[in-house]
């Protein structure tokens, strides 16, 4: 199940950046499961990774290799991504396997091992089937291509329980030149990113220095992937990479920087929202907008408390305007000195709550009409400050339980 | 659905304490939904209430009246509890209705309005059907009785989505005399108590001064009701009352106090566990034991992070020893400077995780054998301190979604 449409766009070429996808039979045969992304020399690469203490072996190795590249003043040259197996909770064996994957691709491509960053997604706790993975690498390298078909194949090659590929692209006019941003992402369950979503790869032809690239990535992740939740579970493998090939216009400051910042946020938000729309079992796409908070942190706390409430999520699934559950979730959010009489809650255009209780004009008919929609907006105003935040989430359906009670079988 | 057996015990008489239950037709006809508890003069009454900022009108009024009684150096004389309607999110009307309920029972019983404490449980956001509630009060008063049948009827009269009444009783030998503790509780969904469960009423014939009674209640609540979760949602109506009639032995200090403390914790823990066993859609009863933490708070944070994980809960439902999900949940717990290489995770007698990954001797067969049980113990050792905590929870099943997607229809 999934909410609404997510069209995979026809991605423009980003010069020098190529993607190769193959079927390595990592979990099951006949499925795209191994992707190699080739990055031109001179590019800058920035990464944001999960804060889960049990981070996966590829996250550890990707961080190490990225740091080594940066120390040499270079960008990474290759990303290698497998699906079907997260290589997480695999201890020393997992680290050795992640490094061996990098080493083999480095050998094939004629680069340093540390210029290759590994990414994995899938079941936690099983070791990688290294024979099949290594045997698949030459095919992925042979498939390297910069066309729209290669982007689409890579978008498909990183999926797990996702029902559809997720891509976003914008082309920005910066003065007389244009800059392109292409991104792909995967994610459907174990989605409560705490740095980034499961996996997202965004590339641009803009020329951006490393410190600015790092800052742009951090800002955009905080407003996009870090503002979504499907099931409150932060993954061991979250990673979001931003690649700037440098073949196009420079982005340094002023209006060009602002435009680029907006474009990047747009691509990342589209990808993040696509993850929620394709959330496991999702039948609703929900925007939670909190304002009137003392701080953005406080607004996020309220939004995530509501977004994680199983009772709110099942009411959304049932299209039941059970606003008492929203009110109860807001009331248990970690907010100091909370005066609930100042809180208003709106469901779409319908006022649900004011003065600590049901809004006088509220009718079940009006509430139910909004809840019946596939895309629902809940606005919560705390009436105590001028900060806000927006979070996107999905509902909790029978299919969510079915998917997660059957995932490994 | 519910896990295991919960036998409602044959409660001994607590002299002077009587319970009356009737069918007032508050939500539907032919169902016990209104309970009055009569407390003898001279008793001491202590209460613990929800910390949800949107607390229900009866919670506000019960707190006020309890404070007024304490200011006069008296205990409350009557508790009145309705099910079918939580009188929460009902603003000024709700407060007026809760006070009117107290006033009418006070008039019938010939006591002060402030000697009556109101409690409600059920749907949030609808006003109480005061005509039916007030019309039901005389019947409840007429039914007042101190026998085991009256305890059982009261246990049934406070239920909502619960599938069975929950009671616990112990009789303690204190020197040459005995002291009795009887308790009833309700709760099945919206269970993540933050002071107490939905509703629990515990009475003893012991004679205990107010400050000690308050302290004993607080301690016992922290180790029982505050250590359970079904669905992470803290209710607007949580309340736990402890009544000491004073007709029996005094409990002041020394061995008698220790015995009483243990007995109280036993009754409250049995009731709290009974709530989890009857958790909405529950098919498993899960004990999460965390040790090796820097503080009890840290141990509780880890335990609740695992207990709230939808992915862990669906794996429990599926009897799938998907230990990677437990590991991922532990890894995202809010623990500073977390060295995961020191963490061990055991499922029953089977070691799942050590040294940051799967334990060497682990086999799927061994894990699956434990997961197939109805009662499951997960032990997590953080290896960084000597503090611990135990939390009880249930799984996330199709029935949970069904119950909560259909509750109001």
TrEMBL record, chains A, B:
Pfam families: ArgJ. Pathway: Amino-acid biosynthesis; L-arginine biosynthesis; L-ornithine and N-acetyl-L-glutamate from L-glutamate and N(2)-acetyl-L-ornithine (cyclic): step 1/1; Amino-acid biosynthesis; L-arginine biosynthesis; N(2)-acetyl-L-ornithine from L-glutamate: step 1/4. One of its GO terms (biological process) is L-arginine biosynthetic process. The active site is at residue 197. GO terms for cellular component: cytoplasm. CDD domains: OAT (cd02152). It is found in: Cytoplasm. The keyword Acyltransferase applies. Catalyzes two activities which are involved in the cyclic version of arginine biosynthesis: the synthesis of N-acetylglutamate from glutamate and acetyl-CoA as the acetyl donor, and of ornithine by transacetylation between N(2)-acetylornithine and glutamate. HAMAP family: ArgJ. Heterotetramer of two alpha and two beta chains. This is Arginine biosynthesis bifunctional protein ArgJ.
